[in-house]
Amino acid sequence: MLLTVTTTHRPATDLGHLLHKHPDRVQEFGQSFGTVTVLYPEATEERCTAALVLSVDPVRLARSRARNAPDFSLSQYVNDRSYAASSLLGVAMADVFSTARSGTCRSRQELADSAIPLEIGLPVIPCRGGADIARRVFEPLGWTVDAEPIPLDEGFPEWGDSRYVRLRLTGVVRLADALNQLHVLLPVLDESKHYWQGVDEVDKLLRSGDGWLATHPDAALIARRYLGRRGQLTRTALARLAELGDEVEEEVEPAAEEEVRQPEDARVPLNTQRHDTVLAVLGELGARSVIDLGCGPGQLLDRLVEQADVTRVAGTDVSTRSLQHAARRLRLDRMGERQAERITLFQSALTYEDDRFAGYDAAVLMEVVEHVDPPRLEALERVVFGAASPGAVVVTTPNADYNPLYADLVGLRHPDHRFEWSRQEFADWSDRVAATFGYRVERRGIGDHDDALGQPTQMAIFTRTEDDDD
């Protein structure tokens, strides 16, 4: 199996830093099913290519089969696994390029955080559904897709095409995002995995899909195929995606919905309830200028621009990818000049002071604080409540007390959550912040109410005290 990653970013040899594999070395890595070799066929200032070659040992593959894995009988020894990219390549790539997938590069961190020109080559990959499926899953992520069907036999064109394609992806993408997308989408195209799938596969999917699966128009298709069409796992994944704000709620069967105790005829997706509630609060506050801190793909921004009373809207996020999604969602390129003047999008981190955060009637932190490492929360508080000091701040975050009502939930609601507060912990935090920075605070809940456990989302509404305005 062969995977190539090429960049023309100058100096192109910085690809070695991002992948943590030196261009002057040929390196081998053992896997339970074979051997991975990483080498650089070309490495110049103008163009650099890293090649990952996986040599599958069919005997080792058979011996490494888990006790509860499906029995493929003779197909363990007679198959395409030695030649065609599949879940084996995805697992090997995830292991060998694990640091690159995390987006960490001490020597070139700014580059690791940036989108760069990339070209991904996969000469042979099974693609159930043909080239159209490849375009369907990769194009929404910003890739230009060249998927060429491979004929069954070039000597007999009347036999038609095989289920394999030659795949070439080109685009300007952050390398970590590209590798995580491949890790998920290789088995999605193949629709077959070489190992048994358990409940931990949902966590793997959400971790690798963080930052892009949330806004993919075919998130439900990807989850279903990645999880081998196992109904319960798929329902769990889609329910947790709905918690993150994905627009896949209609794919979730009632038993896996977030609002597990809400009558079916009254069920409204929790994400919709959050947006509706926050917009209503902003209306109560009379906010005419609003900044969405950690705006993600722009779902709240899309609703805000529809509010005639809101004359100025801003969105900021640390992820440039999310801001690109937000711009597309808002259709900024097709928006009239007068309307576009109301909207500002910019990249920034909430733990560092930025003059662009200031000057708004209200700021929104919707499902953001739980993604911040606890030691960095104090910095966020100083930046938002101290330096920016908006007239009001609306904060929403999961209620950890409510988690036992989610079927099949193990641990936190999302692998990127650093913590989830109970109602008492949230009350203690919000009271301390309000007292420290001169705000008064009111707390409310969002979502289906349980008498003992409260509501799935908790909200704090901070308003600056009159003494602070004087």
UniProtKB/TrEMBL annotation:
Residues 291-393 form the Methyltransferase type domain. It catalyses: small RNA 3'-end nucleotide + S-adenosyl-L-methionine = small RNA 3'-end 2'-O-methylnucleotide + S-adenosyl-L-homocysteine + H(+). Its cofactor is Mg(2+). InterPro entries: 3'-RNA_MeTfrase_Hen1_bac, Hen1, Hen1_N, Hen1_N_sf, Methyltransf_12, SAM-dependent_MTases_sf. NCBIfam families: bacter_Hen1. Belongs to the methyltransferase superfamily. HEN1 family. This is Small RNA 2'-O-methyltransferase. It comes from Nocardioides hwasunensis.
